[in-house]
Amino acid sequence: MRLNCRNENFESVSLIVDKLSKSLNKNTTIPNEISFVVNKEECFGLLGTNGSGKTTTFRLLTGDLNADSGNAYLGSDADLLTNKRQFYSRVGYCPQNDALLDGLTGRQTLVFFGRIRGVERKALEKFVSNICVLFELKAILDKRVTTYSGGNRRKLSLAVALIGRPLVLLLDEPTTGVDPDSRLSIWCLLRDLMVCQKVSIVLTSHNMTECEALCSRLAIVSKGVLKAIGFTAHLKSFYAKGFDLIVKVKSDSNEVIVDEVKRRMNDTFGDNCVKKYDNFGVIYYNLQSVDSRLSQIFQSLNQLKLELHFEDYFVSNASLERAFLHMIATQDTSPPDE
């Protein structure tokens, strides 16, 4: 059953995607009747493995591809079937690979794309003046793009996506290839944009920390099919069962000692404690038992630390990454009602 999008209350909703599909060949449809709603001033995460249909969905929403069926709405007067021009004017897109011309300066880049967008000269001048302050690009705005660092190139790409005051920003891996400081800076910018400019964001990323930092809700896509959707914390608590344990042995430990630590961990926590990997004396486990109490886990680890060659240990709730992997691997992934 299709969403009744014409009667939807767009005072609280920015984007509705309704059963959007694209046939890539006779046997492959990606995305396959994907549907989701993005609220105003929300960052919505679209997650999936490579080839799951995230970028193809963005290409459908930006007009790079035509959908075979389904529709998308940005307000009651703009959709992909009957009013494409109005729809595309309300979308800003930052692709995974920067679509920048290295021979231009930052200022020339913004003016160039602003003219393509049809922004009037005075409005464009004001936009460039404001955005270079907001994105901290003023000092390099008149330098050629080829001299920009990875972080500043991503900032400029984001600035281009904001030309024309779009209602929705589509961000494909927005912090790929940037250093940690630039990544944090971009995250702060995106939060400010949602609050100050009332922009909604649809984000794809392989960085689970980024998703937790920015997204209030997530949709998990596998092979073009929506497998789960919900609030980030809700999905994490429902699918990421158990705890992540990290054990660090002392630097002078040999293989015999490390093997003894592994054996004792298995004896203490049983088959539910699965070793994920170990590296340079740090051993990572996932304790999949949902009945274990945190106090019992700390007590057991503290006892092992006293008896063995532990330097330290760390315990946390299972990660969003584990929830994601569980959802991708599980066929029936309907979460409980929120």
From TrEMBL:
It comes from the Eukaryota. InterPro entries: AAA+_ATPase (IPR003593), ABC_transporter-like_ATP-bd (IPR003439), ABC_transporter-like_CS (IPR017871), ABCA (IPR026082), P-loop_NTPase (IPR027417), R2_ABCA1-4-like (IPR056264). GO terms for cellular component: membrane. It is a multi-pass membrane protein. Keywords: ATP-binding, Membrane, Nucleotide-binding, Transmembrane, Transmembrane helix, Transport. Coiled coil: none annotated. It is found in: Membrane. GO terms for molecular function: ABC-type transporter activity; ATP binding; ATP hydrolysis activity; lipid transporter activity. The keyword Protein biosynthesis does not apply. Residues 15-248 form the ABC transporter domain. PANTHER family: ABC TRANSPORTER DOMAIN-CONTAINING PROTEIN-RELATED, ATP-BINDING CASSETTE TRANSPORTER SUBFAMILY A ABCA. Belongs to the ABC transporter superfamily. ABCA family. This is ABC transporter domain-containing protein. It comes from Oppiella nova.
